[in-house]
Design goal:
By secondary structure, the chain is an all-alpha fold. The chain has one domain (3-194). It is built from eleven helices and no strands. It has helices at 3-14, 17-27, 31-52, 56-66, 77-81, 84-94, 99-110, 114-139, 146-161, 164-173, 179-194. Helix 3 runs antiparallel to helix 9. The protein is globular.
Length: 199
């Protein structure tokens, strides 16, 4: 069973045109801008989860957290769109102090306002946790397997989306206070690639 593909396939299935449309309605923006922001936000969230779960203590904590996110929310889009409080709590664990720079950087690259990106992240975070929680429940992915599953998913996404793979690495290595600038720079490169223009 290829759990790496399952992570990406499940996320792509959840983030189809209908969901993007509903996310856009919640944000008050157009679907293109929302889609662009999602294309940057998902690698960031998965990348940070991978980093957080890199050691045994972190992977055990994530595995325990997934017990409360068994994937049920994936079948209830209205609840997902109203999961701001839950989403904020999840983001506090995933991004920590990096949340504001991420919101600013993704906003600059996608054209969304920082507060719109923040709202988007609070909706995406429960979705990502729901996908992982359902995988844990249905495929018996334990704490010892989570680092491998998340790490491989990030490698696979980096191959598919090029510069998107740099986003999570920036958050791990950049300590100069310019995270937002770097996220915006890489995000603009991603969008340029989508539009067939040089970055």
């Amino acid at each position: 069973m290829d759990t790496t593909i399952s992570v990406l396939d499940a996320l792509q299935a959840q983030l189809g045109p209908d969901t993007i449309q509903k996310l856009s309605a919640q944000l008050g923006t157009d679907t293109a801008a929302t889609s662009h922001a999602v294309s940057m936000a998902v690698p960031i969230l998965l990348g940070r989860l991978s980093t957080n779960a890199a050691d045994s203590e972190g992977s055990a904590a994530l595995s325990t957290a997934l017990d409360a996110h068994d994937g049920g929310i994936l079948d209830n889009l209205p609840a997902l769109l109203k999961s701001g409080g839950i989403g904020s709590a999840i983001l506090a664990h995933i991004l920590g102090s990096r949340r504001v720079p991420v919101e600013e950087g993704v906003g600059r690259a996608s054209g969304l306002k920082a507060n719109q990106v923040g709202h988007l992240l609070t909706m995406l975070a429960p979705l990502v946790m729901g996908v992982l929680g359902r995988m844990k429940r249905d495929q018996n992915v334990g704490a010892e397997q989570l680092p491998v599953v998340l790490g491989q998913a990030n490698l696979d996404m980096a191959r598919q989306s090029g510069p998107a793979g740099e986003l999570s690495r920036v958050l791990d290595s950049n300590q100069d206070g310019q995270i937002a600038d770097d996220v915006a720079r890489i995000g603009t490169s991603i969008l340029s690639g989508m539009l067939g223009q040089p970055a």
